[in-house]
Amino acid sequence: MPLGKGWKKKVEDITSVYNIKEKLGAGAFSEVVLAQEHGSQHLVALKCIPKKALRGKEAAVENEIAVLKKIQHENIVALEDIYESPTHLYLAMQLVTGGELFDRIIERGYYTEKDASQLIRQVLEAVNYLHDLGIVHRDLKPENLLYATPFEDAKIMITDFGLSKIEADGIMSTACGTPGYVAPEILEQKPYGKAVDSWALGVISYILLCGYPPFYDENDSELFNQILRAEYEFDSPYWDDISESAKDFIRHLLERDPEKRFTCQQALQHPCEQSMPHPSCATSPSWDLVQREKKLERPHLEDSMENGDQRGARRSWAAALCMSYPPACGFTTMTLHQHSCPRGGGALPFPVPLPGDISAPKGPRS
Question: 220 an active-site residue?
Answer without folding.
Answer: no
